[in-house]
């Protein structure tokens, strides 16, 4: 029976959250899509949806179905996981999904915090920073699907919900869990629906998590989950397991990387790979056809597959992304590339690839769905927020890398080369 039931709006974010919970001593399993049957036996079950950029009604319906399945399995707390850079359009989906969950859980209030200081995501005076840049100057303003052009999260969430959004500033967070708990209770009793809570260190996140121990719903990035395992231990519900990362089966088979993320970190990792591995960068603008792109890539990969990873990227800098979107439209351009990368991944697996890194959240959704993966066991962390996972019964080891996570040498480091 899961203690914590999680609903993630993309697949990389789901593994990111699962990684945090496992490092905190919870066993965790990631389930792909709205659960149809019994849930796996784990302290935390993370339902990975591809809802971040789906139509609002679809995102809400899938999230509610996931919530109902988690509650039916006995989950004592629900966690709605979205991006550490609050990836969303002004139409949604963070606000509408959170509103629907607040209503379904009849809890009236939820905190919202995307901070992940280890990866440079901090919130101060309600403004989201990536490193030393405001969100809208970090490169996320150029995201192909969810360009983030406002760093003020009170304003951003306020545009997405019919509820009210209040800031809990760092001056309150610094006073610790007890004051925080009373502050949030006061806001709820005063009719506020959400609080964007400042956090610039892990200690802040742990205190916020402790203060929310009895909240029916918590919303945020993986960082705000850091304190949750301790809550369950304090209640005597979670034995002390140390870090509960699953020991995954030994890795075998050919190694490959497929990339659909256009985030700055991924573009840098592709640049590093050019000098250290067989790397193919597809020109999607020249060949705006998913099947043709996949054929190009699989012909190229032919005799190159082995222990050293090959890297196949559809990713492009903002101006090239904009050109394809002008030609096809934003959604069609995104879908075309996601399908091309999914077909490439499917072809690589058919050619003996059993160790696969996928760069990009939406991209991972397309790939994992195409490979028919139903659930993922969470293994050891490669870089902050990115663990290896194991997809039974396919025998695949997968690392679903958030676009902006990972060191510059991540594509080689993941395979120990
Ligand atoms: N060359 C390109 N032109 C237009 N869109 C692209 C291109 N390459 C990738 N994309 C799309 O950009 C989006 C990247 O989103 P995602 O995979 O979630 O990456 P991230 O993790 O960086 O957010 C996907 O929809 C992908 O298909
Ligand atoms: O950044 C995060 O919190 C998550 O890892 C995530 O949601 C990343 O999404 P992306 O689409 O892979 O950037």
Automatic annotation (TrEMBL):
Residues 256-411 form the Four-carbon acid sugar kinase nucleotide binding domain. Its EC number is 2.7.1.217. It holds the Pfam family SBD_N. Residues 4-228 form the Four-carbon acid sugar kinase N-terminal domain. Gene3D superfamilies: Four-carbon acid sugar kinase, nucleotide binding domain, Putative sugar-binding, N-terminal domain. Keywords: ATP-binding, Carbohydrate metabolism, Kinase, Nucleotide-binding, Transferase. The keyword Nucleus does not apply. InterPro entries: 4-carb_acid_sugar_kinase_N (IPR010737), 4-carb_acid_sugar_kinase_N_sf (IPR037051), NBD_C (IPR031475), NBD_C_sf (IPR042213), OtnK (IPR050007). It catalyses: 3-dehydro-L-erythronate + ATP = 3-dehydro-4-O-phospho-L-erythronate + ADP + H(+); 3-dehydro-D-erythronate + ATP = 3-dehydro-4-O-phospho-D-erythronate + ADP + H(+). Catalyzes the ATP-dependent phosphorylation of 3-oxo-tetronate to 3-oxo-tetronate 4-phosphate. Belongs to the four-carbon acid sugar kinase family. This is 3-oxo-tetronate kinase. It comes from Paracraurococcus ruber. The lineage of its organism: Bacteria, Pseudomonadati, Pseudomonadota, Alphaproteobacteria, Acetobacterales.
């Amino acid at each position: 029976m899961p203690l914590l039931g999680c609903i993630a709006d993309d697949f990389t974010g789901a593994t990111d959250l699962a990684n945090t919970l496992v490092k905190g001593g919870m066993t965790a399993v990631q389930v792909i899509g709205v659960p149809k049957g019994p849930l796996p036996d784990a302290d935390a079950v993370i339902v990975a949806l591809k809802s971040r950029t789906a139509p609002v009604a679809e995102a809400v319906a899938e999230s509610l179905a996931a919530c109902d399945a988690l509650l039916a399995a006995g989950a004592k707390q629900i966690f709605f996981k979205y991006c550490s850079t609050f990836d969303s359009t002004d139409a949604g989906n963070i606000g509408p999904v959170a509103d629907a969950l607040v209503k379904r859980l009849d809890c009236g209030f939820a905190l919202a915090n995307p901070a992940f200081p280890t990866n440079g995501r901090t919130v101060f005076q309600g403004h989201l920073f990536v490193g030393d840049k405001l969100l809208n100057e970090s490169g996320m303003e150029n995201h192909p699907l969810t360009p983030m052009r406002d760093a003020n999260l009170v304003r951003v969430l306020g545009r997405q919900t019919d509820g009210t959004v209040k800031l809990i500033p760092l001056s309150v967070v610094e006073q610790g869990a007890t004051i925080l708990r009373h502050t949030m209770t006061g806001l709820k009793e005063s009719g506020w629906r959400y609080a964007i809570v400042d956090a610039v260190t892990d200690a802040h996140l742990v205190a916020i998590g402790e203060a929310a121990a009895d909240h029916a719903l918590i919303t945020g990035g993986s960082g705000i989950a850091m304190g949750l395992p301790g809550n369950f231990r304090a209640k005597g519900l979670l034995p002390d397991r140390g870090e509960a990362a699953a020991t995954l089966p030994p890795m075998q088979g050919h190694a490959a990387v497929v990339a659909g993320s256009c985030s700055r970190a991924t573009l840098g990792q592709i640049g590093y790979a050019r000098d250290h591995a067989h790397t193919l960068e597809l020109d999607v603008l020249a060949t705006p056809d998913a099947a043709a792109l996949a054929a190009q890539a699989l012909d190229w990969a032919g005799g190159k597959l082995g222990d050293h990873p090959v890297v196949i990227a559809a990713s492009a800098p903002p101006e090239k992304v904009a050109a394809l979107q002008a030609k096809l439209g934003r959604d069609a351009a995104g879908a075309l590339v996601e399908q091309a990368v999914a077909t490439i991944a499917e072809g690589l697996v058919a050619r003996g690839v059993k160790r696969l890194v996928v760069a990009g959240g939406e991209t991972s959704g397309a790939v994992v769905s195409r490979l028919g993966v139903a659930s993922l066991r969470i293994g050891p962390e490669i870089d902050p927020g990115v663990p290896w996972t194991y997809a039974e019964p396919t025998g695949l080891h997968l690392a679903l890398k958030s676009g902006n996570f990972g060191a510059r040498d991540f594509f080689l480091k993941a395979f120990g080369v």
